[in-house]
Amino acid sequence: MKKNRLLFIAIFAAVAFAACNKDFLDTRPTNAVPDDQVFNSVDNAETALTGIWAYMYETYFTFAVPGLKSLDLTSDAMGSDVALTTSYGFRDSYTFIEMVDNTKNRVSAYWTILYKTIDNCNNFLSKIDNVPGDDAKRKLLKGQASALRGFCYLTLAEFYSFGVTTNPNGKSVPVYTEPANPSTPGKARSTVTQVYQQAIADLQAALPLLADYERDDTRKFKIDSKVTNGLLARAYLYSNQPAKAIDAAVAARNGYPLMSGDDYNKGFNDAGNVEWIWAQPQTPTQNVAASTFTFLDVSTPVSYYKSFKADPWFQGYFDSTDVRFRLFQWSTSGPGALLYKKFRFRDPGGMVSDVVLMRAAEMYLIEAEAYARTNNTTKAAEVLNVLRSARNSHLYNAAAGSSVTDTILLERRKELWGEGFSLVDIIRTGGTVVRKPFKTVNGTDSIIKVPQPDGSFVNVRGVGHRTVKLPDGSAFVKNSPYYLFAIPLSELQNNPNLNN
Amino acid sequence: MLQRLLILLLLLGPLAAFSQVRTVTGTVLSAKDKEPLPGATIVIKGTTKGVLTGPDGSFRLEVADPAATTLVISYVGMTSQEVPVSTAPITVTLQSAGKDIDEIVVIAYGTTKKSSYTGSVSQIKGAELENRQVSSVTKALQGLASGVQSASQSGQPGSDATIRIRGVGSINASADPLYVVDGVPYGGNLSAINPYDIESISVLKDAASAALYGSRGANGVIIITTKKGKVKGSNIDVRVSQGFSKRAVKDYDRMSTDQYFPMFWRALFNENLNSQDSLSAARNASRDLVGELGINPYGSAFPEPVGADGKLVAGAKPLWSDDWNKAMQRTGHRTEANVAISGATDKTRYLISGGYLDDQGIYLGSGFKRYTVRSNVDIDARKWLKVGLNLSAAHSDQQAPPSEDSRSDNYIQYGRLMGPMYPVYQRDLNTGAYLLDAKGGKIFDYGDYRPDPANPRTNLVQTSGIDKHNVLRDDVSGRFYAEATLYKGLKFKTSYNADYSNRVGHDYTNPTLGFDAEVGGTVSKANYRTFSWTFNNLLTYENTFNEKHHLNVLLGQEAYKFKYTFLSGSKSGFSVPGVDEPADAALIGSFDGYSDNYRQSSFLGRAEYDYANKYFFSTSLRRDGSSRFAPDRRWGTFWSVGASWKLTEENFLKNTSWLNLLTLRASYGGQGNDNLGTDRYYNYLPLYSVNSNLGLGGTFREYLFNDRLKWETNLNLNIGVDWSMFDNRFGGSAEFFVRKSQDLLYSRPKAPSTGYASVDENVGALKNTGIDLNLHGTPIRTKDFSWTIDLNMTHYRNKITSLPQQEIISGTKKLMVGKSIYDFYLREWAGVNPNTGEAQWKYTNPDGSIKDTTNYSKASLYYSGSSLPDLYGGLTNTFTYKNFSLSFLIVYSIGGKILDNDYTFLMGLGGAAGRAWSTEVLDAWTPTNRNTDVPQVSTVAPSWTAASTRFLYDATYARLKSLNLSYSLPKSLMERAHLNNITVYVTGENLFTLYNHKGMDPEQTVGGTTYYRYPAVKSVSAGINLSF
């Protein structure tokens, strides 16, 4: 009997000690890897660039913040030409109560995306030199990381302070170039000039590194020298260095001809478009960025919020021969809204649409504006007219009286509607939002006769801008603080150095 | 039956006769409730030879001395009894000595007598649960034990309640208590436990009681013990009930069509006034009204149903009035059936049970079906060896449509928010008659014409019957132990315990109708599998020295392993309707999967000592290693000390006849918490998260790692007094507690511009201070009639005592030293401006003066009270008269606030055409109604429903949580029918609610915010309980 008991104990003691194995408490995740497995070869290190890119564009913060592409929608919602509905999404950006409110999710989302990307680039750049592997590839990856950081700083410079022409020493955002650790303190806001300088320095550093890189055009999300030049063109123009912008813009669009009128009417959903320089392609299994189309696409049934309706006054800027004019259509169901059917899902079943990040038309417009700002009106008009003729619009004639710069800025609104440049242009030029209600001269409703396929007409009471004043009830003015993005409350609370 | 027993006796009889040694077998029961008394002493009179009864109260004693004639049977707190030695099995019932209320309570790694326990524990008996109409045991805990705060935020059948014990002990790390089933931490679904199988639930609230679960007991421990076979022979118990359920409280009052149309006219009119003279503004409003809302329920006879005076045109009557909210609901049907066979033989005790529950939800497309089986067996394999195996399995099929979600297809919101003028079925717009299809059936109206806020092209009343939101769960739990007696009082127990839980979510929306028709329908399936085991080895020694020194020591080792595996995929585009699996859909949307591993290793010890049943001391020590921390930081040490003093055993009180018990208790100790969250198992490693872009592999740095992380500690002081008097008719306990959480596992905020909004660190401290009070009384106790009352109440204050920075705002709350973690921090409502009709909030100027502003974002934020109640608890009254019994439980919560976000959807000012309106909007500002709390309506009015104190309501409520009336048929009838017992009963749940803010269910989250959840359900059931 006693022996039995001892045996019993012995067996269980053995099992117990086996369970107390030293490695018992070491566990490893399956959806993450320690950094030494990333930075052990140049090929593996490349995943760190792909990964942060996917984070930027394919992360939902909310359904109304589907990654960084939604920043472009915010920019247009806060401009003059989109008459947003009250549907979920960008309605509070449109009324200027969202981006000034430092407690809003959208305010912290873009800040988070951009600075997390910056830190990932910083971390990448600090490590890549010591990673074994092919030097040519290392060079290319360094260039891409540097350009990506430049893009982030460029984006930050656009929205957090007035333009350099308004106040070159205005406080913008902090600049970090070293990777963070748990004790890294928050830094002070740099001036808008400094932030543009950082962006330009990063992009310039990238250019030689990317000189030999030939991008596979099915991978238009990758940064090559064209993309880098395009970003540089933006950075120079926005920071009031127009002379430098010209060459960069020309270099960026080299090899990317303007698309045909038919292509312009195809829904802005295909990265294969000849004019697209930079894009985030989408698939049915990767369509977070494409969900910006649930706001932009106002005509496909599958699109849910359809909130980006056009200001009816905006239609008036187009010639009726313009290929872009064909995209307007009055909605006859519900409140009469003007649809601008520029954006349409490519594959509605899969909710798929590629999203555009940069295209040749913008480069023509940068080039034209840069000439105009360097007082070369002739060249400016010439370049502008290349685009106008491609769009089958009447050509600009300086003799007609309107200023070429104003014409180009208006052409940007017409050509780039929904692509995210409205607020950028307003801030950098010290301009103002222009919105007026869609009423007749007597103040009564505008009734639109909408022709039907059978030849009859349906009367629609046209609805335009709902919000025509700033939240405090005052009129839109130049350089209104309502145009700027707030720095999120969490930054104010946790960065004592911010305003030093 | 009798014959079979006789045969058994005849077979055994000769064996006894041949033996020179007489063997006495029997059972010791308490006279009061006929429950077995484990640990009772049976001694041969005049000697020290004797045995103790086993867990089932049975004993077996060999009497070698032929001269011995009498046995003495004694038990602490009971009057000893002498019985003659006999070879026939005997049953002894012991009467209470009137000096003690000796409840056996289940505690960490064992059981104890409540009156001698140094820790704080509340026990809920199975009988208090078995009549409850709940599908998850967590929902039955409310109001039954002091210190337990329960938030049943969802009425979805099969959902769990959130439980907080003695305040909220953590900010970022989990504040949930540890659930222990049959002695071992439970890793399965709580809804897989059939409440009918539960013998008792112990709530361990202080350090002395919970510290032995040191690693995971910081937020209290809830020990669920399942039933076992007890009494010799076998007993079959059958319980069947049928019932109905409805919404517990009426939904918000909403406007009728006749109220809605003039009000929306006014919204249009007010908007028109911005650009038009009042005459054309009025005319245009009348003209545009029907177009804006998309439909004219008054028929073509009244093309402009609201005249230019803003009133309904004379004679205009709506041709239909459909209530979508009603259409989305139904009377739920509830069926429950349970059967258990339990019993014991000389060497085995067993219970086998099976249960079936069909709890149909009150909203379309929701419900919960559960099938459970359980088998609990204990075997005395050898004189020195006991083994036992508890096995349980549950399968459940839950239909859980979207609720707790701001989606427009939220089943709770959908009907509530639909304007009253939209028909559920297609109507003739001239007559209001139903349009019929070829077969004469009504046709659902998908409302193409409805404006966006009224969900055009959808009809959930129909598609709820086609779409699927199912959750299938399978749970299997095993508890195996073997216990060997090595030497007198020295025992070794080993146990291996495993919980397997598998959940499959299956969501399907059909390809032809409703929300996802445009993408051809969608399907997603997700599989969540968890498997965990706990292996422990315990050595215990118990002995009494010199009759007065009682010692109980426990030493042990434990290992815990947890593995979680996740797999999910989604597709869209069904080729044909009527099939709903991914195989039937064309387009892959996503495919994902990963697994997580978590482990713990522990060593533990406890010593309990008492002197003369008068002074009690206990101490425990435990060391835990957690895989969540770096190797050099992963071990934590947790401990407790406790003492109690039974004053009524002292000479100066021993003879006080009216006082039966007076005990003072105190304990102090520390417990740990490593639960950073279910997605944070490896925070000490410098990790790169894995993702991909268009088929290319990606990694990125998502979080900052911290290899200095260590255990969060909860220091817990408990001081209590227990008393019982007047023949134990009145008694209670009062306890004072201080729970200090330190080294909080806290995500310390960082400047997000560094790339990371936070880093996990051990910083900050919290304190919960409070009082638990339990009162028990039997005001009336006669032969036929008795009335007992149980009242419990808890008050606590939660206070932040240290933070890494001055203040942290998160959501609607702000954290600051001196404030609680659930203090609302909101814009303060300043009323409607009586002159302009605009909404106003308060703001503080830099000079400190407070002004009103109509600009919401300019308004300042202020502390606006806490969501935590001042006092909560429950009151149970039980009346028995002869064979009738009536009992009811009222739960109450006094103080605290709730921010009602659900309601704001009904409080728009006209911007969302077609969305239902609260009747409160009828009181909107007009030039003639200036003193109101609702601003002027207008289709372009600025939003005023964003979070502010305007929608902050007092959370005080009382609820008749359960009511039970039962009747047991008289014993005389039973015997004739060879039955032990028949009880018939009627029972109700949530029958009555006292609450001020109508429409909202007062049971919301601990944090006091609503989120479009499934409301609580009231139910009435009738049942019968047979035992034979």
From TrEMBL, chain A:
GO CC annotation terms, alphabetical: cell outer membrane
Superkingdom in the source lineage: Bacteria
Pfam families: SusD-like_3, SusD_RagB
SusD-like N-terminal domain segment(s): 23-237
Keyword Phosphoprotein: no
Coiled coil stretches, renumbered: none
InterPro entries the UniProt entry points to: SusD-like_N, SusD_RagB_dom, TPR-like_helical_dom_sf
Record CDD domains: SusD
Keywords from the UniProt entry: Cell outer membrane, Membrane, Signal
Compartment(s): Cell outer membrane
Domain RagB/SusD: 349-499
SUPFAM superfamilies, per the entry: TPR-like
Signal peptide: 1-18
Claim: Signal is one of the keywords in the record: yes
Similarity field: Belongs to the SusD family.
Protein name: SusD family protein
Lineage, uppermost ranks: Bacteria, Pseudomonadati, Bacteroidota, Chitinophagia, Chitinophagales
UniProtKB/TrEMBL annotation, chain B:
Keywords: Cell outer membrane, Membrane, Signal, Transmembrane, Transmembrane beta strand, Transport
Broad class of the protein's primary localization: membrane
Source species, domain of life: Bacteria
Membrane topology according to the record: Multi-pass membrane protein
Residue span, TonB-dependent receptor plug domain: 114-221
GO cellular component, one term: cell outer membrane
Position of the signal peptide: 1-19
Matches recorded under PROSITE patterns: TONB_DEPENDENT_REC_3 (PS52016)
Keyword Cytoplasm: no
Keyword Transport: yes
UniProt-annotated location(s): Cell outer membrane
Pfam family name, one: CarbopepD_reg_2
Family statement drawn from the similarity comment of this UniProt entry: Belongs to the TonB-dependent receptor family.
Protein known as: TonB-linked outer membrane protein, SusC/RagA family
Organism, as annotated: Chitinophaga eiseniae
